[in-house]
Specification:
The protein is mostly helical and about 475 residues long. The protein has 16 helices and 6 strands.
Length: about 475
């Protein structure tokens, strides 16, 4: 049944499937860990119980997302041995230690303090508990740092030599870790994680504002999320532009695919907004384009020449259509996030942030936007690197293990079934938890009478008591 399929393509699809499921959870938990630290810090500073209630609400959701992130990530490391053993052999001396450092620093830190953060407030006291929350947040950021160092090295390899066995051997660890694309990719990914979390928190807050339950808690989390969107979205667009310029310098072919530039433009390249990439004919059909704008964005000069894919052998071109569209999806969502952030600022200035139901509905719709943008960005990065695993040095076709297509196809089907069952159930449960925001606490007696019928609680208790004794 699977004999005609390509084992390399199936192995790539299997890794793409598992990493797509996995990355959703770290993208959420990185931002959520920092949000929990902010909530607990605000509670300790202001003594406002609303922050403490929100901390406890999101803490449970974080624990679930964190657990699913760890479990879904373990599977990927096994694939290095099963499907990509040649890559593991060739790049292991560089990639292996970086993965090991993530376990020794990030995982140990998170494992040491996660239990204290989740269950230890009454045992260790608020200050030590806050320290534990900060350490968990720091651990998620360190984890992202090591993983992105490893992935960035595969995109822009540096600091290595190749030994007689054809293995990449580290020569300068500083150059390996701080390779040319690493700082840009780390900033871009962490900001993406923060925006992803902000829009989930904003959607949950908006949902409860629309329902009218727990208005104080809902308004607080919605307000915090919209501040994050308004501040971070423009920074992310700027960081993305800087990352794009870095990619143009070190991975120009990827940018050609992102832009849809099949042909070279010696006197200024157009920005193709939309179209259908046609790799067979090496052109973009039905292109909607703005003359010379791509040169202005990428080179800051309207007439700057830009090379196209006609300068690259067809065998070394990435799949243009996938990269072209995933890049546009990511950029479109980025500007939609910016739009919602600016709209929230306008409503805040008018004093209608908690009442504008149209804004709340838009925020609910934008809830999953961060996840889609992260996946689109990841696809742009990874597919745009093809046909290489280590850019410019090791082809994907040379990296795959000597495996048969039926074996990969069978395990892929098993992954799909198990992942959808397990993580589908986990995601469904998280959504159920998000829909159950506990109500605001009842007002104190000093804020006014609890009963309007003139019957006091004491009198009611006395009446019930005498009735009981009389019986």
């Amino acid at each position: 049944m699977f004999e005609q399929l390509d084992a390399t393509l199936l192995a790539r699809f299997q890794f793409a499937f598992t990493v797509s499921f996995h990355i959703v959870f770290p993208a959420f938990s990185i931002g959520l860990a920092s949000y929990l630290a902010v909530l607990e810090g605000l509670w300790l500073w202001t003594k406002d119980e609303v922050y403490f209630a929100l901390f406890n609400f999101w803490k449970t959701i974080f624990a679930l997302a964190f657990g699913m992130g760890v479990v879904s990530g373990i599977v990927m490391s096994y694939q290095f041995g099963t499907n990509w053993s040649v890559f593991s052999d060739k790049a292991g001396p560089v990639i292996g230690p970086l993965m090991g450092y993530e376990v020794m620093t990030a995982f140990f830190l998170e494992a040491g303090f996660l239990g204290v953060m989740l269950f230890g407030l009454n045992r260790v006291g608020p200050k030590l508990h806050f320290f534990a929350t900060l350490m968990v947040a720091l651990g998620t950021l360190i984890s992202a740092t090591w993983i992105l160092a490893a992935n960035s090295w595969m995109q822009t390899p540096a600091g290595f030599s190749i030994n007689e066995a054809g293995q990449f051997v580290p020569v300068d660890w500083w150059a390996v870790i701080f390779n040319p694309s690493f700082p840009y990719r780390l900033v871009h990914m962490v900001l993406a994680a923060y925006l992803t979390t902000a829009f989930v928190v904003g959607a949950v807050g908006a949902y409860h504002l629309l329902r009218g339950d727990a208005p104080k808690r809902a308004k607080t989390m919605f307000s915090m999320a919209m501040w994050m969107a308004a501040i971070v979205a423009p920074i992310q667009i700027f960081a993305g532009d800087m990352h794009g310029l870095n990619t143009l310098e070190h991975q120009p072919v990827k940018v050609m695919a992102m832009e849809g530039h099949y042909q070279s433009h010696p006197d200024g390249a157009p920005l193709i907004l939309f179209g259908i990439p046609n790799s067979a004919e090496q052109r973009v059909d039905y292109a909607v384009e703005i003359p010379k704008l791509s040169s202005l964005i990428l080179k800051h000069d309207l007439n700057a020449p830009l090379a196209g894919l006609d300068t690259v052998p067809k065998a070394l071109q990435p799949p243009v259509a996938i990269v072209f569209w995933s890049f546009r999806i990511m950029v479109a969502i980025g500007f939609a996030m910016l739009g919602l952030g600016l709209w929230s600022l306008w409503c805040r200035w008018r004093g209608t942030l908690g009442e504008n139901r149209l804004l709340h509905r838009a925020a609910v719709l934008m809830g999953p936007a961060g996840f889609v943008a992260v996946l689109a960005g990841w696809v742009t990065t990874e597919v745009g690197r093809q046909p290489y695993t280590v850019y410019g040095h090791l082809l994907t076709a040379q990296s795959v293990a000597p495996i048969a297509a039926p074996a990969v196809a069978t395990s892929l089907i098993a992954f799909i079934v198990v992942y959808f069952l397990v993580f589908g159930a986990g995601t469904f449960y998280i959504l159920r938890l998000m829909g159950r925001l506990p109500r605001d606490p009842m007002p104190d007696l000093t804020e006014g009478p609890l009963r309007s019928a003139g019957i006091t609680p004491a009198a009611a208790a006395f009446t019930n008591g005498s009735h009981h004794h009389g019986a």
